[in-house]
Automatic annotation (TrEMBL):
Gene3D superfamilies: Phosphoribosyl-AMP cyclohydrolase. It catalyses: 1-(5-phospho-beta-D-ribosyl)-5'-AMP + H2O = 1-(5-phospho-beta-D-ribosyl)-5-[(5-phospho-beta-D-ribosylamino)methylideneamino]imidazole-4-carboxamide. InterPro entries: PRA-CH (IPR026660), PRib_AMP_CycHydrolase_dom (IPR002496), PRib_AMP_CycHydrolase_sf (IPR038019). HAMAP family: HisI. It is found in: Cytoplasm. GO terms for molecular function: phosphoribosyl-AMP cyclohydrolase activity. It is an enzyme of class 3 (hydrolase). This is Phosphoribosyl-AMP cyclohydrolase. Homodimer. Zn(2+) binds at residues 98, 114, 121. PANTHER family: HISTIDINE BIOSYNTHESIS BIFUNCTIONAL PROTEIN (PTHR42945), PHOSPHORIBOSYL-AMP CYCLOHYDROLASE (PTHR42945:SF11). It comes from Arthrobacter hankyongi. The keyword Ribonucleoprotein does not apply.
Amino acid sequence: MSSQTEPQTIAPAAAGTTALPAEVAARLKRDGTGLVAAIIQQHDSGEVLMLGWMDDEALHRTLTSGRVTFYSRSRREYWRKGDTSGHVQWVKSVALDCDGDALLVKVDQVGAACHTGTRTCFDGRMLDATAGTGVQ
């Protein structure tokens, strides 16, 4: 018999059902499934590492634990970055954008941020785009 338990499949926490302070919860503009986009950025270099999703509970855990927690839309469960890979994200600061629909989480990233093993989820994934000149 295994000592590990199977992860619970759960829906995102409904607003007002977690320990997230009411004044923070009231400022969030969640999508139709109760989630807010969380942009993860390396605190000292400004490098954008990844995009994840948080509900109220994941945000509460992130604000109070010192580690980033996401809500996985595909697995329908919470996951704390680095628990299985060792690629931990140590929280340095969290900000809410002006519209309340996105979070900027500045972290100290240990190892790769992307599940593919690259430093960021954007490495080697450039799209062809016409660059603007900055002159009108």
